[in-house]
Design goal:
It is a single chain. This protein is of the alpha+beta class. It contains 17 helices and 17 strands. The strands form four sheets. It has a five-stranded mixed sheet with strand order 1-2-4-3-5. Helix 2 runs antiparallel to helix 9, helix 6 packs antiparallel against helix 8 and helix 8 packs antiparallel against helix 9. The radius of gyration is 33 Å and the shape is elongated.
Length: 561
């Protein structure tokens, strides 16, 4: 799912939560002023919440390990497309493109509707007769229409009305003008223009307009107008405002207005209900957080099972001196051994990365993350799951060994000093010590790439095996989607690295090229990959200020400078 669709889902879910909360807790309260603030502020917040990700803050302060937070599901888990399922994103008639077109056309029509209403107001004002210009403009319309107001102007019908009734009507509309209710009405129209397809947006619009009428009715009665006389006036002046953006005298449901006029004032203790709206924002932020759990192990496992299930043409029998090719997927060993899960527990797996962070994965899908560099968290991890694992063995000497018949070498670089470009197509076996690793010893880089060139072997049987040092920052394949790239870029930024992706290319639904920069505040590397099968970016854990960043490519082209 594209990022913009995910944001749209979060936005519409927020609107639904706002209206449901108003309907359940605030609708029957007589705190009309507080209701007005809620109905404008909270829908406005709905435009911002989808762009806020509090997961880095939770992780930095250790709050993501709190049980109640772990029980709040992330919306991303339910609406995003798995990485192992290709999605067409580049064709003009794809589902996301067609949906975007429909939404844009609908919003354009709603914007045109709003302009038509405004020009209708201008036409009515041009045909009306000005009675009073200060402090507000009062116009007498030529047609017999329902009284209404907009901005700093009040429009009353030409029909002869008793003086007291006319005074009550003008007082009602003057309250709309004085309290600038036109702003609320215009905001509601803009909300429906953006979310015209969402019924909750229209329900919020109706609630805003109805609450404004409650405010005006309550003010008129509180200023001395007899409540029964005013109720008869509401029954007498019926109809709909000729301009939808105007605050009409009898716009909202007459039955609800009569009920609220006769309703006893709510006790001050009922104001506590408004405090419940604050946890609503917190829950939405929790539900909209980007999950920090790594998807790489699940991705590799899924790819392995998918490739194993495909029918492939078996290769020719290998000679006794030639080993069979490795399986066609990347195997990434952990740089630190995993402590076994405690017996009789709900733990499914414990993973310890080179960043000294232990991730405990439970059978129900929940995770716990411990920073083993912090004594308190390391002690807690040891108490629950045993002592921390031993550090990896440091390799003192690394040399480069190349076999015969090498056409092109695999690209392996750690923030290289010189530009590197290569394409993997033949049998290669190498152990490479990268430039950055030399400057930040004792971190070493170890890579083994193998592939077969047999003409009689089917394409799915061509395989590579790659051993990768360090923690995987980014893993892309030709089947990765734009959403996959956005997720992994966001994860890299959360880890404190600087990454920018300038050019992503798709062809027939496959990722064929990507370009950008990756690094930290001290140094960045520009990368450009094309026609690759798999691409890996990793980071070493050498306990220095500038841990080496390494780039790996399988059957593709990669430029680093």
């Amino acid at each position: 799912m594209p990022v913009w669709m995910l944001i749209l889902v979060k936005f519409n879910l927020s609107l639904a939560v706002v209206w449901i909360f108003y309907r359940l807790f605030l609708r029957r309260l007589t705190f009309y002023g507080w209701n007005r603030i809620f109905l404008v502020v909270y829908p406005a917040i709905c435009f911002i919440i989808p762009f806020v990700n509090i997961n880095p803050w939770l992780s930095a302060n250790g709050y993501n390990q709190i049980s109640i937070i772990q029980h709040i599901p992330s919306v991303n888990h339910f609406v995003t497309t798995p990485l192992d399922q290709p999605v067409q994103t580049d064709t003009p008639f794809s589902y996301p493109a067609m949906l975007a077109l429909v939404l844009a056309v609908g919003s354009t029509l709603m914007g045109a509707r709003l302009l038509v209403m405004y020009f209708s107001l201008l036409r009515i004002r041009a045909q009306a007769r000005l009675l009073v210009s200060e402090p507000v403009g009062i116009y007498e319309t030529r047609d017999d229409m329902v009284p209404f107001s907009f901005g700093n102007e009040i429009f009353i019908p030409k029909a002869n009305l008793p003086e007291k009734e006319l005074e009550a009507i003008i007082r009602h509309e003057f309250i709309h003008v004085k309290q600038k209710h036109s702003f609320d009405i215009f905001f509601a129209e803009l909300l429906c223009m953006v979310a015209w397809y969402n019924p909750f947006a229209w329900l919020i619009r109706h609630a805003i307009r109805q609450n404004l009428e409650f405010i005006a009715d309550n003010q008129v009665v509180n200023h001395g107008t007899d409540i029964k006389t005013y109720q008869y006036l509401l029954l007498k002046v019926t109809g709909q405002s000729p301009v939808a953006i105007g605050a009409g005298f009898n716009l909202s449901s007459l039955k609800n207005r009569l009920i609220m006029l006769n309703k006893s004032k709510s006790g001050k203790s009922q104001l506590l209900k408004f405090l419940l709206s604050l946890p609503i924002v917190v829950i939405l932020l929790m539900a909209f957080r980007n999950a920090g759990e790594s998807i790489l192990p699940r991705l590799i496992s899924t790819k392995a099972s998918m490739l194993a299930s495909k029918d492939t043409v078996p290769p020719k029998p290998a000679s006794k001196n030639i080993k069979p090719p490795p399986p066609p997927f990347a195997i990434i060993p952990d740089s630190k051994p995993m402590p076994p899960p405690p017996p009789n527990s709900n733990v499914k797996q414990i993973h310890v990365g080179n960043n000294a962070k232990a991730t405990v994965i439970f059978k129900n899908g929940k995770t716990e993350i411990y920073d083993l560099t912090k004594p308190a968290e390391s002690k807690a991890f040891a108490k629950k799951y045993g002592g921390p694992p031993k550090p990896p063995t440091v390799i003192e000497d690394v040399v480069v060994n190349e076999t015969e018949n090498i056409d092109e070498a695999p690209v392996v670089a750690v923030e290289p000093v010189e530009p590197v470009s290569a394409s993997v197509s033949t049998t290669v076996s190498a152990n490479v010590k990268s430039p950055a690793a030399v400057a930040t010893a004792p971190m070493k880089t170890s890579v083994n790439v193998k592939s077969s060139n047999s003409a009689n072997m089917a394409a799915p049987a061509e395989a590579e095996s790659i051993e990768i040092d360090g923690e995987v920052l980014l893993n892309l394949t030709s089947r990765s989607t734009q959403a996959d790239i956005d997720k992994q870029v966001a994860k890299i930024k959360e880890m404190g690295y600087i990454i920018e992706v300038q050019n992503v290319q798709f062809l027939n639904g496959k990722l064929v090229g990507i370009e950008g920069t990756l690094g930290n505040k001290n140094k960045k590397s520009h990368f450009k990959a094309a026609d690759f099968k798999e691409l890996y970016f990793t980071v070493g854990d050498d306990k220095t200020e500038e841990p080496g960043i390494k780039f790996y490519v399988i059957k593709g082209k990669l430029n680093i400078n």
